[in-house]
Amino acid sequence: MPYCSVSGRAADDGGEEEEVRIFYQRYGYGATKVILIIGFAGTLESWAPQVKGLTGAVDPVDEEAPADGGGAAEGVEVCCFDNRGVGRSSVPAQKSQYTTAIMAMDALALMDHLGWQSAHVFGHSMASKLAAMAPERVASLALLNTTGGGYQCIPKKYLDEVVGSSTRRKILYQEYVKGLSSGGMQSRHGFEGQLNACWTHKLSPKELDRIRSAGFLVLVLHGRYDVVAQLYHARRLAEKLQPAAKMVELHGGHLVSHERPAEVNITFPIPSYLLILSLYFS
Fold first, then answer.
1. Nearest alpha-carbon partner for 38 in 79, 75, 91
2. Tens-digit pLDDT profile for residues 129-151
3. Which of 100, 136, 186, 226 has the smallest C-beta neighbourhood within 10 Å, fewest atoms?
4. Distance between CA 140 and CA 253 in Å, rounded?
5. Which neighbouring-strand residues pair with 78?
6. Which pTM was predicted?
7. What are the distances in angstroms from CA 220 to CA 29, 43, 160, 161?
8. CATH code at position 208
9. Domain count of the fold of the chain
10. What angle do CA 255, 259, 263 make, to 5 degrees?
11. pLDDT, position 115
12. Which residues contact 79 (CB under 8 A, 6 or more apart)?
């Protein structure tokens, strides 16, 4: 099983945290690196439409294969992982071990483990925190259905809306079952810890300026009808990150990465010749 150890880091309370192992999987081969960072309570399986769209792969690479993909310069290598507290990654018991800063450091440690100097970073709140903490490691940044911090419950109206031939409730349930089959039910410690990270997440003016002035492209992607993470917050974030940021509003809700996978994939700020994969394999 591919794991990255991030043990021994100082906790917020000054103590040493317990050993934490981050479970990850790699897909595809190539010099272009993409790291996908899932949001609250999600597992790496949630990125399936993006993984397939970017690499054409549905199965992870051989664990013994070199992380550089054997020098396939024109390909894309994608890494996605289970955040601490969910799936097959470790579940620290202390709530203080869950903040977006700590979880962003997990992602950076994973990049070090893979030997990646930089990567195109795509994800939720942890992605923006990573970019603020280590802008030199970011080739580009794409933020999906980001929130203004704090926990927002999923409204019943949202769950009952029809997407294609199914409801969002059924789609979410299927994703939940898929996650259970691979990593088991999320524990109370993991749920409460990740909830704490959501509650306490924020970007300071200095962090926003660090992202804005870093020189990489920032895309803020959001479903127009997202009632979980309000579109207002995404628009405000894009405004604060001008002129580096571009706001992209797509037809869909909080599951826009599943509702409109081809549109989401093609917005990735990677070389245009690679984006043909997004349309062909989605």
1. 79
2. 999 999 999 999 999 988 755 43
3. 136
4. 24
5. 27, 34
6. 0.78
7. 26, 21, 26, 24
8. 3.40.50.1820
9. 1
10. 110
11. 96
12. 24, 25, 26, 27, 33, 34, 35, 36, 110, 114, 116, 119
